[in-house]
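Quarterly update from the structural biology core.
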Amino acid sequence: MNLDIMKITLRKINTGFTLVFMYWIIFEWPLLSKINNLSIISAVRSVVDLLPLLLMSLNILFQKWKMQKYELAIFVVILSILVIVSLSALINGYSPFTAIQLVSVSFRYVPFLVLLRLSTPKIMGKFYKHVRIAFWLIVVICFFEIANKALFMKLFLPSPSIFGESLPTIYRSKNIEISATFINTIDFSFFIIALSCFYISQTKKAVEKVIVFITALVLLFLSFSVASQLCMMLAGVFLFRKRRFFWIIAAITVVAAVVANPRITKLLTDVDSIESFVEISNDYSRVGFFTKLMPEFFKGDPKDVILGMGLDADVVDSKLSSYRNLPLILTFGDNNIKLLKDVYWVGIIMTEGIIVLLLYIRALYLLYSRSKKVLPGNRAQLSKLMILIVLFLGFFNQVLDVKSFSFCFWVMTGIMIKYGYENRLLANIHKKYLQAGNDLPVGNTVNPI
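Predicted structure, tokenized:
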């Protein structure tokens, strides 16, 4: 009896913890802003990031948790990745613990897949309610930030002095650029994408869908993240594929972007500008990673292609220095791992190897196949969309390493899988009930969780 009470209590804790953690993601910097020591702030954030894993361990101990096949497969994939990067570290002469520490960031919120399956019923409804609250709360916060950015940063964000020379983007921007309670526009914009996609996919009100979508586009525009704006437009194709208004909004947005930026107009109409753009992009943008860097990499050491060059900055810089045809952007600094990671998939191939890239794809496929199995076609849309967003944003930034988005990805995918699993279970119970010759009571239907 005591064990049953413990299970019920843990399920409630799992639900509450997930909801509270979402608000922690939003407000961690304001809550820690009065600590004038970056090392202490980083330590607190790291400890909090361990809590999902610790809570999952408690569930294993007291709920007699039986791992489902897809969960086991995902954990095996993660373990395989950690083993391979550790082997690569040993071969390249640096500590495997460094490699494990860097790679595990992408998977720190995987325990939420388990916590959500072992949470209370109707977690979907509770999470949706709080996503709505969080979305509009961020909108209000952004209004405050736009009204008086200096005062906002003084009240809600840490002093820029604690960051030294490596200032986050919001401290370096001199325009109306917004990031709400986040210190980087990428964390903010990726979080808005995830929240708005979940919000739009779950609300039944057509007008609300439109309002949320347009609001999200405005926030992303003010974040000055082009990749996020493109991603939101791509998401809109899936979320509004049968609605004429979306295509109207898309056309207006493209026209407005061209008209508002004379450089784009010139680029689209001037042949010399196009040639100049291509030439500059090959040396000073992510384009050069594909046109120059990758061909050099695949002509290099087969060991690096298979196991990667490693995740140690000195090792990577040393190997890159031997390349003959290198984008100039990789010749200016002494730590190029961060630049490589900006194109997440290229960064994985070069630092962790082809095998690890295939394992990442395998993990995403396992989530996709599980969602497809337990969810009806229209309900599986969100899980598919979240995976597509990961694939797309991976060409612009280290998407699964971005804390705010990584949390949303694993939690939202886990919630959708739980939703499908419990509805399918309920449907099977009803089917067996009817097959036994019973009449289904009036009003007793399969309802969303």
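Confidence is low (pLDDT under 50) at residues 263-268, 442-449.
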